[in-house]
Amino acid sequence: MILPIVAYGSPVLRKVSKDIENEYLQLDKLIADMWETMYASNGVGLAAPQVNRDVRLFVVDSEQIFKNMEDDELGKYPDEPGFKEVFINAHIKNLDGEEWSYNEGCLSIPKIREDVFRPELVTMQYLNEKYEPFEKTFSGITARIIQHEYDHLQGKLFIDYIKPLKRKLLQRKLGDITKGKIKVDYKMMFAK
Ligand code: NI
């Protein structure tokens, strides 16, 4: 089932999400719905707060990004192309490597893209969809998407990294998104 994506301005996007306990109802269904919702909106990642659940869960599939890359560009990203994973109770263990910039967007903040600097490497502690525990280090685009989705669990958004002056210039656009004065080709849920 495709779920509406929560738009910028909704309080759930500013909450710190909680770990999922064993008895969390219908987790399999929520994960399946998140995949369906992410693919329907052409996303490469989706975090639970974006579908109005304040739990530490996100899904990532970088295939769309790599599919549209030329071979020489692909060479710049030595990480696994088309990496797909469910992250349950995700926590960052370590950030490392040099910061690099990439033009990011977010399904909750449509039609805004900005360059964001993030560290090259991220080590994650998480459970996969079978509740198997992992501690794994990611690099490249995959590490980038993971850090973006992880921020959603911390109540943080990519626009928070933008310098104040530039952010000020975005205020009107952000206000329009909050009020639902925006056209998108996927289902959204607005604050007002
Ligand atoms: Ni996002």
Small molecules bound: nickel (II) ion
**What's the oligomerization state?**
single chain
| Element pattern in H and E | EHEEHHEEEHHE
Shape by Cα distribution: globular
Uncertain stretches of 5 or more adjacent residues: none
Tell me the count of domains.
1
CATH topology: Peptide Deformylase
Task: Specify Rg, calculated over alpha carbons.
Answer: 16 Å
Rounded average pLDDT: 92
| Widest sheet: strand ordering | 2-3-4-5-6
At the fourth level of CATH, the homologous superfamily is: Peptide deformylase
Class computed from helices, strands and strand pairing: alpha+beta
Task: Give a description of the structure.
This protein has 192 residues and is α+β, with helices and mostly antiparallel strands. It has one domain (5-181): Peptide deformylase (Peptide Deformylase). It has five helices and seven strands. It has helices at 27-40, 63-67, 71-74, 140-153, 164-179; strands spanning 5-6, 45-47, 57-61, 84-106, 109-127, 133-138, 188-189. It has a five-stranded antiparallel β-sheet, with helices on both faces. The chain has a two-stranded parallel ribbon with strand order 1-7. It starts with a strand and ends with a strand. Nickel (II) ion binds at residues 106-108, 148, 152.
Topology readout:
Elements: E1 5-6, H1 27-40, E2 45-47, E3 57-61, H2 63-67, H3 71-74, E4 84-106, E5 109-127, E6 133-138, H4 140-153, H5 164-179, E7 188-189
Parallel strand pairs: 1-7
Antiparallel strand pairs: 2-3, 3-4, 4-5, 5-6
The protein binds nickel (II) ion.
Notable characteristics:
binds nickel (II) ion; Peptide Deformylase; 192 residues
